[in-house]
Amino acid sequence: MHLFSKINPLYLLILMLGASCSKSIEHTKGLNQEIEKKVEALLEKMTLEEKAGQMTQVGIPAICIQEGYWEAADTIILDTAKLRKALTEDHVGSFLGKNFYPPSRKEYHDFIKQIQDFASNETRLGIPIVYATDAVHGAHYTEKSIIFPHQIAMSASWNPELVSKMAEITAYELRASNTPWNFAPVIDVSWQAQWGRIYETFGEDPYLTTVMGNAFVKTSGNDMSHPEKTAITLKHLIGYGSPLYGKDRKNNLMPERFLRQYYLPPFEEAIKQGAKSVMISSGMINSIPCHVNKFLITDLLKEELGYNGMTVSDWGDMQFLNEFHKTAPNHKEAVKQMVNAGLDMCMVPYDASFAHHVIDLVNEGEISMTRIDDAVRRILRFKHELGLFERPNTHYEDYPDFGSEKFAQESYKAASEAITLLKNDGVLPLSKDKKILVTGVAANSLNYLNGPWTRSWSGQDTSYNDNEKNTLLEALIAEVGSDNIKYLEGTSYEEDINTKAVVKAAKKSDCIVVCLGEQPRTERPSDIKELYLPEAQRNLVKALEKTGKPIVLVLLEGRSRIISDIVPLADGILMAYYPGHEGGDAIADILYGDVNPSGKLPISYQKHAAAPMPYLHTVTDRADNFGGYTDYDPQWPFGFGLSYTDFAYDTLKISDSLFSESDTLKVTVQISNIGNRTGKEVVQLYLRDDFASLDPDYERLVRFKKVELEPGTSKEIEFLLSQKDLAFVSATNEWITEEGSFTLSTGNRSDLLKTVSFEYQTTSK
User: Fold this and answer.
1) Residues labelled catalytic
2) Quick one: which of 601, 685, 676 has its CA closest to 646?
3) Which of 77, 402, 505, 731 has its Cα between 20 and 30 A from that of 135?
4) In Å, what is the CA distance from 214 to each residue of 151, 347, 675, 705, 764?
């Protein structure tokens, strides 16, 4: 079945009748048979009402003593009457979230244990609830947890080991908070610069996203019953990161070929690594809301990919179908559409109305019991695989490394390898005896370092900041002392504050460090209409340039905010992304040369607001009408990043110039450090199909490896390619590999490029 197939009603009837004769549509290969027996035994005992409750996820404020769901409170106190109703009458199977403030790990333990104890002792079957939260860059909703760089920065490190370490520590600190289920990682591929949640992704490339996603899943998601591991959730199936008009939860026009080639691979590979939870996108594909799209959830995910985990909606998607997408005249019809499409659990999140609608719809024959049993079977399996029946709670005292300096150092390493040097006209590294003027909205702010989803939802609230951590200003003072550092604010996010005073102070300084920033926001508030960084911030740089003093820009932002008018005015530019709690120290160490920058862009940094374009595009997309190759014109290309040393790409060699279906092609790249400092370089290998039945990608990343070299040394890097690496999705939506010539390239993503070509043939020589 294809994405655009019109389904015959008779086919649907046959499908439903056929399903009633089988246990489940799911694939059972590799399942734990002991768990399966327990699941089936429990399923047989359950009433329809209990099954519907298991499919329901409710936000924690709905069972608290506070009157309104969004009423601010500084303590989570459960209302026992509300809790009793939720568990014994509505049979709710899952809860999520927190209140406005970040609870301590002890508080998480206490209120989740209260729910679990009630579920075990006061309900008929004693089924444990499963508690979930968002932990997209550390356990950021727990007080005093480690805050890591956001995913876009983790990807900029091009070091999957750092992603694995982040996932490992996040899982540990979530379990210290008695929370076994994490709504992360985000493995959306994003090609839309106006969309606000790019910082949550691993960037614009499917292969880089796949590698980083796998690193997260393998570390955090395997053996999720282990008391230091959690379940993870792949977000958001699918195309969520590239809405047509750049607005959150909106429409994406996507041919099935694009879906399969560019957006699906990260999900497919993460599922192979053992991911057991997938969150369905709140957006739409070709005007069909993803959470009612049977092709996506049932045909593609569950049947074709053989996925036997569970699916969960995003926040309020039942309501959105009626109030937002307008595909359902009421919430009951929305529930019918979601469940019949294959959704297993609904994040309601204000009450248990979803469960009530499920009961009515089953009794009316609108949803089959087979579909309900399939959903509940997956949920019960998920809870068994988490070990909740044996260990419903974990205790904070069993996690002595929570918030430790050891963990903080891992966040520092990640930030240090992520920060990307984009321009250096000899101004960096800074001399420690120079007088530095520090200015800009992001210079003295933890919030601009941490970004959204930090203690609070938007990340703007300063009430819960960990003020023992250094802002960039504080880190610079710690590095060289207050005598050599002067600070003036300059601007707010969008308004001038004291630019004239900053210019006056600059005249007495040896160098100016201007910290420009993107205000932390998330979800719909983070969408923008203007890609340029706010004018007030850019005007500050323009005014300072007239002093003649060297200028270094530090960019604290979650995507490429256009700064093309001030790039020529700066002598040095660092892209710091949202680097997290240790980001101030990491930036300072790079500015002063204690750390040699090694980050590379995981996105194309745009130059023109009217022509945002990812690096992954066809040969024709890149060409102008005169046959040149100029249309991909970013400020800095995908994969770009400078160092304080110089690397030479000496050779690019292949094991054979002819390559067949059963062969493995060995590719070797020799690289040398020809500078005078030890440094790390990301060796990137790109492939182009020289001629194909479809307009081929101009280039696409197929391998990479980060290596460290001392001055005057060389290293040979080996990559292995198979026939699968040459494949693309055809016009009939099938992966194929065509005979013909291919070109491999490597280099520094700027002016140096090594290439080599080979021929592919379907049979051996």
Assistant:
1) 314
2) 676
3) 77
4) 13, 26, 34, 15, 32
